[in-house]
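As the next step, I wrote out a protein sequence along with its fold in token form, included below for the reader:
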Amino acid sequence: IRRPYPSIAAGASCRWRGWNISTRTAALAYVWWPTCSVSVIEFLNPLVYRRGMVSQGAKDLFTQAKEFYTEGEDRSKDAKAFGIFAEASKAGCIKAEYYMGRMLDKGYGVDQDYEKAYSHYSVAADHGNPDAIFSIGVLYYYGHFVEQSYDKAFGYFMKAADLGNPKAVYNLGVMYDSGIGVEQDAQKALEYYTRASDMGSEKAEYNIGMMYRSGKGVPKDDAEALKWFKKAAGRGMLKAMFNVGLSYHAGKGVPQDEFEAMRWFKKAADMGHKKSQNMVDMLQKKFNVITTIS
């Protein structure tokens, strides 16, 4: 006797077990119920993921892949990382899909391929991964694989920002600041930059400093600009250190102090900032400021 409404029955049973599968897959799986297993479901639908129920094996694979993956200059182990991320993805790890997308996007360990990157990002984004949603926004912003669209980029950044992605919050500030894709609005730019600062963005802090230095959309205030440059400098941003040095050198927002200016210029110069090194050389010649200060 044929059982009625197999898709409903199977769908309910599979969802009760925590499986996120299509109705069609559930209906096909119902033929084998109750002997239907995870392996059968995965055979029928290669994009099976269990929301909140990723297996320990998938988690272990993801952790192993992360050990080989780095965001630094040494990318010698990226190819191995990509292979393990692929295994973790097959085991149901959504984060692995995002990392595969990123590596394809940037060409880390694999040939750069925006189309495949978009595909992996989309899988992760469909499961609410904010980094993947943000990354799709970047693809639309630059027109990589997809047709370039600031409107769509803005929409994806907004979604990612609502999910707590700091880069998306910062990018919304940039778009409002420059009027790209939206009507230029300095107050909204400041609002998003401030939110991004609260989330640890030194770029946002630097941009706020520049807004106060130039008086763009806010009252010109050198002291307030210096405060924000110092925040960004405290996070290691070299051009922010340079601007702190300029503030002391020119006496903007603070009493002029060439020794303090030298301290900031030298700090940035020692980390490779060429403009700061030029200022160090200039101050040495003009004022004979000792460079051994710490």
Observations:
- The CA atoms of residues 151 and 163 lie 19 Å apart.
